[in-house]
Amino acid sequence: MIPVLTIDGPSGAGKGTIARLMAERLGWHLLDSGALYRLTALAGIDRSLSLDDAQAMAACARALDVDFKIINHAVVIELDGTDVTSRVRSEEAGMGASKVAALPSVRDALFERQRAFQQAPGLVADGRDMGTTIFPEATVKIFLTASAEARAERRAKQLLELGENVSLPRLLEDIKARDERDSARSASPLKPADDAITLDSTALSIEEVLAIVAKAVADTNR
Ligand SMILES: Nc1ncnc2c1ncn2[C@@H]1O[C@H](COP(=O)(O)OP(=O)(O)OP(=O)(O)O)[C@@H](O)[C@H]1O
Ligand SMILES: Nc1ccn([C@@H]2O[C@H](COP(=O)(O)O)[C@@H](O)[C@H]2O)c(=O)n1
């Protein structure tokens, strides 16, 4: 079976960072499932659709015309032929994603697209339901978390580095709202798989988290 490492957890816990570093280290493929929900929201916004319209948003998700390109060692994301790399990371896309992700029809529409990422020699998949719903058979499952305050501070630092204006209280509010919506929804809510390793990164550096995850993967190969 093609091995899969899943990294789930709340927004800003460091999933994307650790998933990318682990994929590089292992030479495995990478699935950023949040990007698919963000792109679905952006496609809906661009078509002036209501993000609550389950049927229209599912059709949008199914027909998503996306391309992930590597240009000069960086990922470039195109939606309908347009570069949306920066837009995908915006708070508008994140909050929109969290709305459309609560629709079971949208989750169903993206199911097979995500499963198709499981290619040799292996896959690192980052999201909310990678270990519970999309890859329940995964070799190693990590549930990466951190306090809401630490996550808001990390996000603020990230946005400041991008030259964006930030309000820490506003970021903290958004993170808590997103946590609440992601955890309370009935379709694939944010929660650790029964067989996941839960890792609280509040007081850990990226290198320390990476070492723990790498050891968990190495331990399964013994
Ligand atoms: N252990 C850590 N200590 C300090 N900063 C961290 C740590 N892990 C990640 N970061 C930083 O926090 C920010 C958010 O990390 P990242 O984007 O990987 O989170 P995420 O869980 O994928 O978030 P989202 O689900 O919203 O995409 C980044 O700037 C990253 O460098
Ligand atoms: N497997 C997933 C991944 C993401 N979501 C939703 O998308 C939002 C954006 O995700 P990021 O990881 O890019 O921040 C997130 O808040 C979730 O609502 C999901 O439901 N399932």
From TrEMBL:
Residues that coordinate or bind ATP: G9, P10, S11, G12, A13, G14, K15, G16, T17
Q: Does the keyword Magnesium apply?
A: no
- State its Enzyme Commission number(s): 2.7.4.25
UniProt keywords, alphabetically: ATP-binding, Cytoplasm, Kinase, Nucleotide-binding, Transferase
Listed InterPro entries = Cytidylate_kin (IPR003136), Cytidylate_kinase_dom (IPR011994), P-loop_NTPase (IPR027417)
Reaction catalysis annotation: CMP + ATP = CDP + ADP; dCMP + ATP = dCDP + ADP
Q: What class of enzyme is it?
A: transferase
Similarity comment: Belongs to the cytidylate kinase family. Type 1 subfamily.
Q: What is this protein called?
A: Cytidylate kinase
Query: What organism is recorded for this protein?
Result: Aequoribacter fuscus
